Amino acid sequence: MTTVVAIDPRGMEHCETTALGVLLRHEGLDLSEPMLFGLGSGLSFVYWDAKNMGFPFLGGRVRPFDLTRNLAGRLGLELLVQETTSPRKAWDDVAALIGAGRPVGLQLDSYHLDYFGSKVHFGGHVVAMYGYDDHSAYLVDTEQQGGAVSTSLTTLARARAARGPMTAKHRSFALTAPTDLPAPYGQIVPAITACANAFLNPPIANLGHRGIDKAGKLVRTWLQRAEDPRRDLPQAALLMEKAGTGGALFRNLYRDFLAECTGLLDSGHLRTGHALYAEAAALWTEVAALITTAGESGDARYLVQAGSVLGDLARMEREAMQALSRLGGETTGTIQP
């Protein structure tokens, strides 16, 4: 038995936007990856460290699945979310949707997937599933992971049942676009201002611009914090650049989103935000390189330099978001796409 939905299996840079792209193209809505990320108000920052963690984590986006909820709400899409503790019901939910000719989004732990190159537990990974047979599930993952891929039904079940940080209870989801779907570009300003306001007013010091400033102070201590600096620091830098972030801890994606928006809206505040994020993206890549060199050399001077750049980034991103937050009160001209 084989059940497969006809889809456009285009792999992108980031897992959640890749899955969203598959589901939305099936609904007749084809948006660029930066536009999906930006309309979902996906950009953020978190400095995450805890006693049970081997090493601190720098995150550059909102929590897993918040991007999907944001995007669906903003575009007026019907979002069907199903969660359960029962593996059998979890499979039946997915099989029913695919049997009805609809691709399905899945949140799972990528560690268990047959094709996944990096064997690291990550419970916030998202894929699109478009078919299965007696032995395998057919998925779309990021371009880095192969785009259209497959994994055994056994490993898929294991990945969906995993428990731990950022996991969900066999979460699956589907999107439906209404026949009178409004133009997505009309939601650009609300998406940008919501993202900016959250970034500028974080509830705790680990988030937003305050989190970047905190990271600038704490990164200087990472040689002492690491159990194995030659392993831990380059790994942290690799996650910033290569782990589905699109490079520069998601700043490349947001830079490109803002660039696309400047072709649709005539706004000085928007151009200011884009220019600052173009500069910030390059500096994030520089920070990752400095962290890697510090780990490989054991020389703390590179971490001092990284901390200084992070201080600049906290200021730069704060200024960018302050400009972008003013979009809501600005009269903007519309440029026809």
Write the topology of this structure.
Layout: E1 2-4, H1 15-26, H2 33-39, E2 43-48, E3 57-61, H3 66-75, E4 78-82, H4 87-99, E5 104-108, E6 125-133, E7 136-140, E8 148-152, H5 153-161, E9 172-176, H6 188-200, H7 208-218, H8 222-225, H9 229-241, H10 251-262, E10 265-266, H11 268-297, H12 301-325, E11 333-334
Antiparallel strand pairs: 1-6, 2-3, 4-9, 5-6, 5-9, 6-7, 7-8, 10-11
Helix pairs in contact: 2-10, 6-12, 7-12, 9-11, 10-11, 11-12
Word description of this protein:
The structure is a single chain. Helices cover 47% and strands 15% of the residues. The protein is of the alpha+beta class and 337 residues long. The chain folds into two domains: 2-30 and 78-176, Cathepsin B, Chain A; 184-334, no CATH class. The strands form three sheets. Strands 1, 4, 5, 6, 7, 8 and 9 form a seven-stranded antiparallel beta sheet that branches. A two-stranded antiparallel sheet has the order 2-3. Pfam families: BtrH_N, DUF4872. Residues 14-142 form the Butirosin biosynthesis protein H N-terminal domain.
CA-CA gap between termini = 44 Å
Proportion in helices = 40-55%
Radius of gyration: 20 Å
- SSE order in H/E notation? EHHEEHEHEEEEHEHHHHHEHHE
Sheet with most strands: 7 strands, antiparallel
**What count of domains describes the coordinates?**
2
Mean pLDDT: 94
| Poorly predicted regions | none
> Count of DSSP helices?
12
**Shape assignment:** globular
Structure classification: alpha+beta
Please report the total strand number as a whole number.
Answer: 11
* SS strand fraction: 15-25%
